[in-house]
Amino acid sequence: MLALSVRRCVRRHCALFAFALTLAASGFLAEAADTDTGLAQLMQRLAQRQHAHVSFVEQHFVPTLDRLIETSGELFYDAPDHLEKRSIMPKPESLILDRGTLSIHRANRSFVVSLRNYPTIAPFIDTVRAILAGDLPALNRRYELNLAPAGNHWRLVLAPRDAKLAAVVTKIQVSGVGDEIHTVETERPDGDHSVMTISALSDP
């Protein structure tokens, strides 16, 4: 039962992965005129980032339920590998990834697991770490990367090469204007589709 809950939670919260991409892209992608050069510079910039804090609104379509689910809250990152998705609406929930440990808190229930015990979701977590570390070779091994600047607009698309990762996510597309992330779209093999809108926040 715990293993099933972890797998479902990671699939539902691909926003952590999207957030890592958001950190990588913010303030940079519109400057990239060449895809290969742009990706290399993106990773170099990402590796220097120490902290980030943004708000999100995510619309998630679930085919089996035939309805749209909307959540909102905040996302946090602290170097080297701490990520947190803190949902506020429609109900409080948090997902924390820290040094190979996943902590999930919702309602009156909490549990903490080591990701080493869940090899089916390891590629997903390794991807998050590779992005935060600015490890372009690792990303290239797992994804086909397509960075498409168009004037002040840009789009970054990631399509999995890795079969295990493709079982979790089909495609992720990040788009924006200038140095602002506007949307992160995630598609999953079962037809689930989510669109996250990102807004910058300033810590007090």
Protein traits:
single chain; 204 residues; alpha+beta; globular
Write the layout of secondary structure elements.
Elements: H1 2-12, H2 15-25, H3 35-47, E1 51-62, E2 67-78, E3 82-89, E4 93-98, E5 101-106, E6 109-114, H4 122-133, H5 136-142, E7 143-150, E8 153-160, H6 163-166, E9 171-177, E10 180-187, E11 193-200
Antiparallel strand pairs: 1-2, 1-11, 2-3, 3-4, 4-5, 5-6, 7-8, 8-9, 9-10, 10-11
Notes on the protein architecture:
- A hairpin with a 2-residue loop joins strand 5 (101-106) and strand 6.
- The protein has helices at 2-12, 15-25, 35-47, 122-133, 136-142, 163-166, and strands at residues 51-62, 67-78, 82-89, 93-98, 101-106, 109-114, 143-150, 153-160, 171-177, 180-187, 193-200.
- With 204 residues, it is an alpha+beta fold.
Low-confidence runs of at least 5 consecutive residues: none
- Number of helices, where a helix is a run of at least 4 consecutive DSSP H or I residues: 6
β-sheet strand percentage: 35-45%
Main sheet summary? 11 strands, antiparallel
Largest sheet, order of strands side by side?
6-5-4-3-2-1-11-10-9-8-7
Helix fraction, binned, reads: 25-40%
Structural class: alpha+beta
Overall, the morphology is: globular
> How many distinct beta strands?
11
